[in-house]
Amino acid sequence: MKRMISGLLAAVTALSLLAGCASQPSASDQVVSEPVQAGYEEGVSIRVAALKGPTAMGLVELMQQDTESDERHYQFSLYTSGNEVVPLLAKGEVDIALIPTNLAAVLYQKNEQGVQVLDVNAGNVLYVVSHDESLSALEGLKGKTIYMTGKGTSPDWTLQYLLDQSGITAEDVTIEFKAEPAEVVAALEHNPTAVGILPQPFATVAMMQDQELSLNFPLEDAWKQFSPDGNGIATGVTVVRRAFAEEHPAAVAQFIADHKKSVADAQANPSEAAQLIEQYGIVKAPIAQQVLENFDPMTAVSGEEMKTWVSGYLEMLFAAAPDAVGGKLPDEGFYYLG
User: Fold this and answer.
1) Cα–Cα distance for residue pair 74/83, rounded to 1 Å
2) Quick check: helix, strand or coil at residue 74?
3) SS3 state of residue 173
4) What does the alpha-carbon distance between residue 255 and residue 264 come to, in Å, rounded to a whole number?
């Protein structure tokens, strides 16, 4: 895939990859109770934090609808890094947050199991880009220099896992980490035989800037080959503070429903959603529309399907780097199944 729109890369370099039931039992013996009726609670305004990327893209319709409502049920804040959001959750200054999946697992382990996962909000967002149109599979990375961002984060661990499973050793590739996606694009310009791994919307931005770049394949293609349940990469999840969920189960159930509708509305009207995405400072509308129409990285999967997807993803990350998920896999209490 090749694009010819330039000059938009700088506008989004601050983006980050990259987001009821009754009172919950302890993490070790959580049971699923009867579903709670969703509903807005009088006097309750849920504080929601999201990252400027695919996770926030799925919220823009809800953000706009809430802004236009006579009664405000939510307070939205957007950030560029999950590290900005975690302290807010820990201090109780945010009720719901959309963050990387592995970060949610680490937070669960370190914060006395004080958060739970409501839904998966971002699936596969990682793509291989290069100047070689024929590159179409993970095996083609052998012997290549790979530029990417996110050393010591999910993209890094995801790639390491896939290379290991594919029999590609550290001696077979040269991985160079850059501070931001713009540096990856610049490196590819200077080394046209190299390969870049970029998340959306950066992969789209890169091709808009360099019309010679090709979108080769998503890392999810390889991930699914090794996934025991056939699920793809669960990049981002939505978490809720356990204390808030216990106190306001109806409001939490309503958010889950509102999030699903917001994502569906954006998918059904990408042009309109793209304008809102730019309005909220997430990414320029032309980029957003390209991403929504061609890659659709947003989702809002909850319940048992969420649990299967997230647990499988974390198991694979744990196999690659235990520290990536907090040193051990989260127990059943990690999953909100209200």
Assistant:
1) 22
2) strand
3) coil
4) 14
Structure-block tokens of residue 240: 């809720």
Which residue type sits at 268? A
Under 8 Å between Cβ of 298 and 57: yes
Rounded Cα gap, residues 273 and 285, in angstroms: 8
Question: pTM for this structure?
Answer: 0.85
Cα 306 to Cα 312: distance, rounded to the nearest angstrom? 10
CA distance 55 to 310: 16
- The closest alpha carbon to 99, from 174, 154, 176, belongs to 154
Q: Tokens in use for 5?
A: 């729109």
d(CA 85, CA 51): 9
Cis preceding-peptide flag for 192 (omega within 30 of 0): no
**Tell me: the pLDDT tens digits for 301-334?**
999 999 999 999 999 899 888 999 999 999 999 9
- In sequence order, what DSSP letters do the residues of 232-280 get, joined into one string? ----EEEEEEHHHHHH-HHHHHHHHHHHHHHHHHHHH-HHHHHHHHHHT
Q: Is the dihedral of CA 319, 135, 172, 206 positive or negative?
A: negative
